[in-house]
Amino acid sequence: MTVVNTIRVNGVDHEIPANWQAKRLLDYLRTELKLVGVKEGCGEGDCGACTVLVDGEPMCSCLLLSGVVGGREVTTIEGLPREYLDKFSSACETHGGVQCGFCTGGVAVMSSWMKNGGTETGVEPVSKLLEGNICRCGGYQQLTNAIADIN
Amino acid sequence: MLDMTPPKISTIADRSTGRARYTSDLVPAGTTLVGIARSPHAHANVLSIDTSKAMALPGVLDVLTPEDFSGVALGHHIADEPILTDRVRYVGEGVAAVAAVDEAAMIAGIAALDIEYEVLPHAIRVDDALALDRPIHDNFPDNVARRFAAEPGDWDAEVKRVTHWAEGTFETAAVPHAYLEPRACLVRVDGNELELVSGTHAPSMLADQYNKIAAVWGATVEVTTPDMGGSFGAKWEHPTHLVCLSFAHRLQRDVAMVLPRRDDMIAGRTRIAMRIFMRIGATADGELVAKQTKVWADNGAYSLHGPSVLLAASVRVDNLYKFSAVKAEGQLIYTNNIPSECFRGFGIPQSAFAQEQLVDELARKLDLDPVEMRRRNAVGEGDTSVHGWEVTSCGLEDCLDMVRDRIQSHRNDSGLVSDGRFKIGYGLAAVIHCVSNSGHDEATDISNIIISVDPDGTICVASGEVELGAGTAEVLQRTVERELDIKRGQFRFVLGHTSTGPFGRGSFASRTSFFMAHAAIAGCKIFSENCSKLVDDLGLETNASIAEIAKLAAQKGHAESLKATAQFIPENVVAADDHGYGNIASAYTFAVHGACVKVDTLTGKTMIQQYWAAHDTGTVVNYQGAVGQVIGGVIQGIGMALSETTAVAENGQLLNPGYLDDRVPTFPGMPNVDVHFAATFDKNGPMGAKTIGEPPVIPVVGCIANAIYDAVEERQYTLPMTPEQVWNSLNTKVQ
Ligand code: FES
Ligand code: FES
Known about the structure:
Chain A is α+β, with helices and mostly antiparallel strands. Chain A has helices at 25-32, 82-95, 104-118, 126-129, 140-148, and strands at 6-9, 12-15, 51-54, 57-60, 73-75. In chain A, helix 2 (82-95) packs across helix 5 (140-148).
C-alpha cells in the first residue's frame, strides 16, 4: 500500500510531514498552515465550526486525521472564492447573521457547498442541512435568511 | 518591552469571512502549553502532590501546585476560589498545573503527577448541603454563603385585601453558558511585564485584581481583549489566567492554554439552579397586592457573582407590577457542583418563570385577559416601583398591544387547532430590566473615552468597554460617525485594551451601549471643540472636515491639542441598600413575549410554532444588532426552557460535558421570531436609547410555560420542560 501524503489545500499542494499524519486535520490546518479561520468549538463533531470541504464535500476537520486526507483536496474558509465570501458577508450584514462570529466560518463553508450544487436546492430545507452547525449566539433565523438571499 | 499594539477591532465582514482573530488564533506554533490536573473527587483534601516524576519527563518545563498560590483567592463578593486548590470542592477543579513544550509532553506531565486525596462527604443538592455535617468552606459552617431578605410595604395590612392566591414551588436547572469559543488565554512576557490576552467581560477589572496579585512577584499585568467567541456572563476572572501568568513570569516564556470543550464544561461555570417558592395575592377585581418569594440558590463550589444573582432573583421581577407589599428571602448555598455564575439575565429568568406563570394563573382564576391583567398592574412612566426603581420611560403598553394583536391574528389565520393528540396553546410573559446596576459597585459604574490623533492623522477612539460579539463596536462606530461626521477608516477604535485604553467597567449588565455611547458623545463634543479651536488658532479654512483637521494637526505637530477625554457617570442613581431598595439605574427596559406551541400529549414534546418578541429599548441605534440580540436571547431562552441542563451523577461527575448531551438549540426546529420595538425615547439615554442585552432571554421560560398550560392545562414547575417532564405532568396526577 502506498501512503499518499500530499494534500492540496486551497489550491496549493503540501507534503504532510510525518509527525502530522496521525494528528487532526484541524490542527494541521490551524497550526502548520496557519489557516486559523477554521475554528475548534468542540473537537467532537458536534458544532461544525471546523467545517472544511474535502473533495468538495463538507466535513468536520476535528474528526479527520491529516494522513487520511492524503491525496485529496481541502478547501477552508480562506480558500472560498472571494466573490462568494463578499456575497456571504454582505448577506450576513443585511440580515444580522453574525454576532460573535465564531461559528460563522463553518456556516460560510456549508453555505458555499449548498450554493455550489452540493445539494439540490429546495430538496432539504437550509435548517436541516445546517443541523450540524451550532450558533450559541442564536443567529439561526438570520443566517437562514442570509443564505436564502445569496444567489 | 512588550509590543502593546491593540488588536484591530473586527468588522462584520471580518467575522463572516474568517479574518477575525480570537485568542487561540493568536498563539504562535511552538508556544509553551499549560494544562491542569483536575480532581476526580467532588470534595476532598489534597494530602500530597509528588511532582518529581512529572518534572523529570522530557518536555515538561515547570509544575505549579497549591503552595505556589497560598493566600490568593478570587471572587467578586466573597474571595473563596483558590487558583489551585488543596481542598477540592467539585469534580474537575484544578489541583496542579503543568507547563510543557508541546501538548504531548503536557498531557504526559499531568498523568505523571502523583496526587493523594482524602475524600470527604459531599453534597450536590442544596438540601443535602444544608444537612452536610462537614462544611464545604470552613468559615461558612451552615454552607450558606449569603442570605438576603426584603420586606417593603405593610405585609399584614395588605394581605387582608387579598381574595385570591396563586402559588407554587419551581425548580430551574444549571445550564452551561456553552459559548462557542472555549476558554483560552495567551500570556506574553518580557521581564516583569506581563500581557494577558483573553476574551473577558471586564479587562480593566481583571487587570486591577491581577496586578494586586502579581505585585507580589514584582510583575505588572495588562489585559488585551481580542475577538471573543461569546461569553453570556461566564468569562471573568478565572484561576487559569493566574496559572498562565505565573508560568510565564517564572519561565520567562510566552505560554498559552486553550481548554478542550470537555474541560471547559466540567471546569466552567453554569447558570445558577434555583428552587423558588412564590405566591402572589390579588383582589377580586384583579389588583396584584402582595407577593412572597423564597429562593434557594445552588452556588456550586464558589461564589463568583452569586450574591448579586441571589438578590436579583429574589426581588428584581417584583418591580414590574405595582405590588403594595413584598416579602422576599433567599439563601445562596454552597454545594459540590461546578461554581455557578451570572448568565444573561442574572437570575431573573429563573424568577420570571415563577412569577409570569402565577400571574397567568391569577388571570385565569379571576377570568381576566392575561394582557389586561398585566396592563392594569404594571408600572409605567413616572412610577416608582416597590423596590424604588424610578421609571423614566415605558413602552410596555405598546409591547402588550403588539403581542396581543399578533397572537389574535395567528389564532385566526394559522389554521392551527388542537386535535386529539396534538394540543395548541398560546402564552405570554412580560419583563422589566435595569440598564446596568449601580448597586453592584457604585464607585466604578462609569465609562471613559479617549479620542486622540495618531501620527498619520487617523483619529483613535479608545473606550474601556469591550465587544463580546453583541454589537458594541458597531454602536461605537455609529455614534462616532454621526457625532464627528467621519467614516470608519478615517478613525480606528480600541476596545478592551488596558495598556492604551482608559478604565472601563466592562460589558455586562445590559450597560455597555448606554454608558459607552454617553461617554463617546461627550468625548466627540470636546474633540469637535478642540478642532474648532485649532482651526481658529491656525487660521485654517473654516469648512475643513474633522478628518482633514486631524490630518493637518498630525502633520503640523498639533495632534496633542485635539486630544479629548470624557467620562460618563450616571445621575440620580444609588446603590441598592441591603434589602435591594433604591433607584439603581438611569433607565429601565421592558418587553413582552408571546409564543404559540404545539404539545404532543403522547410523548410530551413541545414544538414552538411561532414566537413574538416586543421590546422597549428606547431609541434603537444598531437595528440589525438589536434584532440579533433579541432573537439570540430567545433562542437561548428556548434552550433553557425545553432542553438544557447539566446532568450530575451522585458522585458529582458531570455526565454531559458536550454540546449534544447538553442539547443546546440547533438550526432545525427553531421557530420564527417576530421582533418588534416600541417607539420610546428615554430622556436619560444617549439619543434616547436604553439597551438590549439581557432582557430577550428573561421572559422566554415563563412565556413557553404559559403556552404549554394553555395547550394542556398543566402547570410546569420544573426546567427544562423536556418531553419526559411535560409527559409526567400530564400522566402523574395526584389522586
Ligand atoms: S470543532 Fe469540529 S465539530 Fe466542533
Ligand atoms: S455568531 Fe456566535 S456562535 Fe454564531
